[in-house]
Amino acid sequence: MSDLADALVRLERAVARLEAAAREPRKAGDEQLAAAAAEIAGRVDAALKKLDQLLETEPG
Questions:
Q1: Rounded Cα gap, residues 44 and 18, in angstroms
Q2: Less CB within 10 Å around the terminal CB: N or C of the chain?
Q3: Angle between helices 3-23 and 30-57 (to 10 degrees)
Q4: Cα-to-chain-centroid distance, residue 50
Q5: Per-residue pLDDT averaged across 6-25, rounded?
Q6: Alpha helix (H) ranges present in the chain?
Q7: Taking residues 51-57, what's their average pLDDT?
Q8: Taking CA 22 as the corner, what is the angle to CA 5 and CA 44, rounded to the nearest 5 degrees?
Q9: Alpha-carbon Rg of the chain, whole angstroms?
């Protein structure tokens, strides 16, 4: 597996964890955490799109 593909797998796992945290706030203060997690997940999704584009152009 190439470095880019490996990075893509790690980012996808991170997004899944962040999305799970954003869906289920447990305490009153967790709402801020959920909002931050949602924002971070959006940024990671953008990075995933860029990596996907790089993988499409990667030889081999």
A1: 10
A2: C
A3: 160
A4: 12
A5: 78
A6: 3-23, 30-57
A7: 82
A8: 30
A9: 14
Asked if residue 25 lies in contact with residue 31, where contact means CB atoms within 8 angstroms, the answer is: yes
Q: By the 8 A CB rule, do 4 and 51 touch?
A: yes
* Count of residues in the chain: 60
Residue with tokens 């953008």: 46
How do residues 19-51 score in pLDDT, each as one tens digit?
A: 777 676 666 667 777 788 788 888 888 888 888
Token pair listed for 58: 């990667």
User: Looking at residue 33, what is its pLDDT?
Assistant: 77
